[in-house]
Design a protein that fits this description.
single chain, about 375 residues, alpha/beta, Rossmann fold, five-stranded parallel β-sheet, 15 helices, globular
């Protein structure tokens, strides 16, 4: 136990708070049980440690504890052992990372919530599938937040040391000139937009650009080769088929699924193919456009399929990247985080155009990069 405490202190001490993600101020930290789910690599651990550092300013250091459930300590001890020891010594705030590493974590967290009413718990997991599975068990207790990769605004704030604030969709539609004036008074956004599309979505770009693609490829393989078989029961023999499916999506502009033709091409049944497409969406490797996003089920065919973010295209289809597809992927990724996006039946006469390579828009033409300031 002393080792866990020492590691927690060290991690908090070494955590940088020069840049804090916008979600920090959107979470109601007064809730007793908070879940933060998001794709691997988007910065959940850093968020926990930054929150702990802020708490430690107003509390004794012993009031907070960070642990990752992949620590070997849990091979012989339970979460109950941890919480009991921690609370008896004045512990008030428990931060649990990588919770899906514990096969019974959702039941264990539920028990901690019930047995220690004065303890506040925040948990995260890199496995989106496992967090989704657990929500039913914790639905009456946990408030679960979604954490997205970096917006273009956040990328600029980190890489260029700016302090741009979020803008609303309504502001973009009505005040695009003022937004361009505000940003251009400090930087040239198009100078950095291409960099963001290639390596700006995941915060680990700050650790070095040279290994960025390698780390992102590792994340994709871990999701496909470990999480899908373990959490969705997909036979490992079919993983190459899913990789092939993901490659087809990556190289398309965008991918408009012909389910019958595709099932023949990769030699799997129609319903199995639709199920695999649904799982790729669950894991945040792809993002789908439907005519009606309400009531989506795993056997419903999407109208279009994109990779979840532009960075994935440069890893999965570097030799075949299409700039038009990259632009659409960026737009859909940034807009769909806090807005409902559907595939239209027809183009409205009052439609707007999101255009790349312009600093200022006019009339109903809006600079594409401005949509990267929505969160």
């Amino acid at each position: 136990m002393d080792t866990l405490i020492e590691k927690s202190y060290r991690k908090v001490r070494e955590t940088d708070t020069l840049f804090v993600r916008g979600i920090m101020d959107k979470i109601d930290w007064n809730d007793r049980l908070i879940g933060i789910r998001g794709a691997r690599g988007v910065g959940k651990t850093t968020l926990l440690l930054q929150r702990m550092k802020k708490i430690a300013d107003n509390n004794a250091a012993s009031a907070c504890l960070y642990v990752s459930l992949d620590n070997l300590w849990f091979a012989e001890h339970s979460l109950l052992d941890l919480a009991d020891f921690f609370v008896k010594r004045g512990g008030k705030f428990l931060f649990l990372d990588e919770v899906h590493k514990n096969p019974i974590w959702s039941q264990a967290v539920k028990n901690l919530y019930d047995d220690f009413p004065d303890l506040k718990i925040v948990f995260t997991g890199s496995s989106l599938l496992e967090i989704l599975n657990a929500r039913a068990d914790l639905s009456r207790r946990a408030i679960v937040y979604e954490m997205q990769g970096l917006s273009f605004r956040e990328f600029l704030n980190i890489s260029q040391k700016t302090d741009f604030k979020e803008v609303s969709l309504q502001d973009i539609l009505k005040n695009q000139k003022e937004i361009s004036d505000m940003v251009l008074s400090e930087i040239k956004p198009l100078q950095f937009f291409g960099d963001y599309l290639k390596y700006g979505y995941y915060p680990f770009f700050t650790e070095g650009i040279a290994r960025y693609s390698y780390r992102l490829e590792e994340i994709v393989n871990l999701i496909l080769e470990v999480e899908l078989p373990f959490l969705r029961g997909i036979e490992t023999a079919y993983i190459p088929k899913i990789k092939q499916l993901l490659q087809i999506v990556a190289e398309s502009v965008p991918f408009i699924p012909n389910i019958d033709g595709l099932s023949k091409r990769i030699a799997i049944q129609r319903n199995t193919l639709l199920s695999y497409l649904y799982h790729l969406r669950e894991t945040k490797l792809t993002i789908h456009l439907h005519k009606d996003v309400q009531g989506i089920n795993k056997l419903q065919k999407p109208e279009k399929i994109y990779l979840e973010n532009p960075n994935l295209a440069y890893v999965l289809a570097e030799a075949n990247t299409d700039i038009g597809n990259i632009r659409e992927t960026f737009f859909l990724n940034q807009l769909s985080f806090n807005h409902r996006v559907e595939y239209p039946n027809h183009v409205s006469d009052n439609a707007y155009v999101a255009a790349d390579n312009i600093e200022y828009g006019f009339d109903r033409k809006i600079p594409l990069w401005q949509f990267g300031f929505l969160y």
